[in-house]
Amino acid sequence: MRPASQRFFRRHGAQRGTTASVSIHVRNLAQMFNSLDPSPFWDRDLDRTAAEFIEDEFREKLSADTWHLHVHTLEGAELAPDLQAAIEHYYERLAGSARLRLRDEMRMGEVALFAGVAIFLLCMTAHQVLSGLLHGVPRILDEGLIILAWLALWRPTEALAYEWVPLYRKRRLYERLAGIRVTVRGEAAPAVVAGPPPQTSHAGAAPHRA
Fold first, then answer.
1. Residue 126: pLDDT band by 50, 70, 90 thresholds?
2. Could you tell me the pTM of the whole model?
């Protein structure tokens, strides 16, 4: 079997209007599936190299409304219906996992924000109390409470403002890929051109003398 890096070949997908396409060339359509997955082909995970190729190519075509994947194969074209179902199931599972992870991240961010607000109020209250009780609050304590108060808000605010974006984009990509249209095209193997017959020598032949 050829190395994974040589099993999938890139052909620039054409993007016209709202349609984008990507082509993959494989020797056998079974190479598109995870060979270690014992499930039937229609419910089997995709080969990781093939999945990464598909994701990278279509990530650059998010503006297109419809995505087409054209798979050219020399063998195994009868697995075409299984490939369509496998891609749908595979990316539906990934989209569901990304959706749950995004929900958990947002919930954890909200809890962290509530905790940060509580710490912020506690630190600022302590700062005000110490300032009223003591005429000379040590500078390190005075500034330390203020810094701690703002640090308590910084991390949860960053998580809620920015860190959910990559997870959201990944979920959207998987949802789009779950609805991709797959076309499998069987191709004939290239003809092998026979070379000249090899020269042979006859054992025991008498050497030629001038």
1. confident
2. 0.66
